[in-house]
TrEMBL record:
Pfam family, one: Zn_ribbon_LapB
Name under which the protein is recorded: DNA repair protein RadA
Region Lon-protease-like, annotated ranges: 357-461
HAMAP family recorded: RadA_bact
A GO CC term attached to the entry: cytosol
Its job: Plays a role in repairing double-strand DNA breaks, probably involving stabilizing or processing branched DNA or blocked replication forks. Can catalyze the hydrolysis of ATP in the presence of single-stranded DNA, the ATP-dependent uptake of single-stranded DNA by duplex DNA, and the ATP-dependent hybridization of homologous single-stranded DNAs. It interacts with LexA causing its activation and leading to its autocatalytic cleavage.
Annotated SMART domains: AAA
InterPro entries given in the database record: AAA+_ATPase (IPR003593), DNA_repair_RadA (IPR004504), P-loop_NTPase (IPR027417), RecA_ATP-bd (IPR020588), Ribosomal_Su5_D2-typ_SF (IPR020568), Ribsml_uS5_D2-typ_fold_subgr (IPR014721), Rubredoxin_2 (IPR041166)
A single MF term (Gene Ontology): hydrolase activity
Family: Belongs to the RecA family. RadA subfamily.
Domain RecA family profile: residue ranges: 73-222
Organism listed in the record: Comamonas piscis
BP terms from Gene Ontology: recombinational repair
């Protein structure tokens, strides 16, 4: 079969060019032309000749009012790994397409091999398509993971058409593509991993999933910035996008849901890498808290919210005398927000750090994006500057505004109950988050402003 011609389409404006150019001739944007299969010209005359008075060739379709459509819950199949099911929203969805990305060697293939083996043992046929390894290498990994007598079917192939034909003949319930960057289609002449190949292969696999009900899991490479490699449209085509996070030198891994059409976003699953693969961590707060025999200056425990799960994370700050140009460095927190909080401390609480180096770290490699960490960051900086530790069993949360006010955080009751369950006894929270009924085991102090919170903490020393 002759290969179809390809055209180059601008990812910014959609303009086309018959050949690649450095600059788009339509919008003058640089390096935006990507190769795509050209539409077939066969049948064009017939399509135009059948147009009606309106000039459209297609026939009108029946429409249905939204209220008349039956709303049914999506059926889910547990993957056998509870932490992965939490991130997916309850399990694998029939016909769903999941894209999972992460740094090389972080555990993507390990986790998916464990998941498809568990599904196979539950009676769901699974197909593991590997384009980066041979079947012998996958079998060797399964032996290391302790997956004895695994009946998961393995296909070592990178040509898309052969993969689709195999799926049609074997009819698996779940297909894992490891990875989408190694696949290529005969319809395009570009090399595997190019933007056109990645988009074309993902589109065909998504179409197959929706038409046959086969759940498809795509493994994606990431760029040096940490984003998924390939076109951004790849994330829009799939139903769920998961990111693997964590340091490859640490044994703990986080799987975070960035997009999920069948569940909540920003859910996280916490795993520990062991000799037998990835194991779910039932109490993730324990890995984000340092074990100090006595409270130390500059340490403050924050109750953050990751999806529907409250997590206790330790925020550490170190304030040291700096030179003429003091440094501000944060790990796991937004650096610009740290600069803003230091300005608020100076203006509204009288705590000056203009000539000090300030280093802030979220313990355990977790990244905190919510503003409810503001109050914990400010109290840890103040504690390090004074050289006085916060009280034992102390936790806090709350957003701080530029005017010095402490704003409430969402779902404050759940945060306080989680802290009380783990043995924390003292809490400083925004006044709007103060519970109407006392929570057993924890003393709660409500504050309205930053200076009030710092004065209150000094009285608790």
């Amino acid at each position: 079969m002759a290969k179809e011609k390809s055209v180059y389409i601008c990812s910014e404006c959609g303009g086309t060019s018959p050949r690649w150019l450095g600059k788009c001739p339509s919008c003058n944007a640089w390096n935006t032309l990507v190769e795509t299969a050209a539409d077939s010209a066969s049948g064009g005359k017939n399509r135009l000749s059948q147009t009606g008075r309106t000039g459209y060739a297609g026939q009108a379709q029946a429409v249905t009012p939204l209220a008349a459509i039956e709303a049914t819950e999506v059926a889910r199949t547990p993957s056998g790994i509870p932490e992965l099911d939490r991130v997916l929203g309850g399990g694998i969805v029939e016909g769903g397409v999941v894209l999972i990305g992460g740094d090389p060697g972080i555990g993507k293939s390990t986790l998916l091999l464990q998941a498809v083996d568990a599904l196979q043992r539950e009676g769901l046929p699974a197909l593991y398509v590997t384009g980066e390894e041979s079947g012998a290498q996958v079998a060797l990994r399964s032996r290391r993971l302790g997956l004895d007598n695994s009946q998961v079917n393995v296909l070592s192939e990178i040509q898309l058409e052969k993969i689709l034909a195999t799926c049609e003949s074997t009819q698996p319930a779940v297909v894992v593509i490891d990875s989408i960057q190694t696949m290529y289609s005969d319809q395009l002449s570009s090399a595997p991993g190019s933007v056109a190949q990645v988009r074309e292969c993902a589109a065909h696999l998504t179409r197959m999933a929706k038409s046959t009900g086969i759940a498809v899991v795509l493994v994606g490479h990431v760029t040096k910035e940490g984003a998924l490699a390939g076109p951004r449209v790849l994330e829009h085509m799939v139903d769920t996008v998961l990111y693997f996070e964590g340091d490859t030198h640490s044994s703990f891994r986080l799987v975070r849901a960035i997009k999920n059409r069948f569940g909540a976003v920003n859910e996280i699953g916490v795993f520990a890498m062991t000799e037998k693969g990835l194991k779910g961590v039932s109490n993730p707060s324990a890995i984000f808290l340092s074990q100090h025999s006595e409270p130390v200056p500059g340490s403050c425990v924050l109750v953050t919210l990751e999806g529907s799960r409250p997590l206790l994370v330790e925020i550490q700050a170190l304030v040291d005398s700096g030179g003429p140009s003091p440094r501000r460095l944060s790990v796991g927190l937004d650096r610009d927000r740290l600069a803003m909080l230091l300005a608020v401390l100076n203006r509204h609480a009288g705590v000056a750090c203009a000539d000090q180096d300030v280093f802030v770290n979220a313990v355990g490699g977790v990244r905190i994006g919510e503003p409810a960490a503001d109050l914990a960051v400010m109290l840890s900086i103040t504690s390090s500057l004074r050289g006085k530790a916060l009280p034992k069993g102390f936790i806090t949360f709350g957003e701080v505004g530029l005017a010095g006010e402490v704003r409430p955080a969402p779902r404050g009751q759940e945060r306080l109950k989680e802290a009380a369950k783990l043995g924390f006894t003292v809490a400083v929270v925004p006044r709007a988050n103060a519970p109407k009924k006392p929570i057993e085991g924890i003393t709660i102090h409500a504050v309205d402003r930053v200076d009030e919170a710092i004065s209150l903490v000094r009285g608790l020393d």
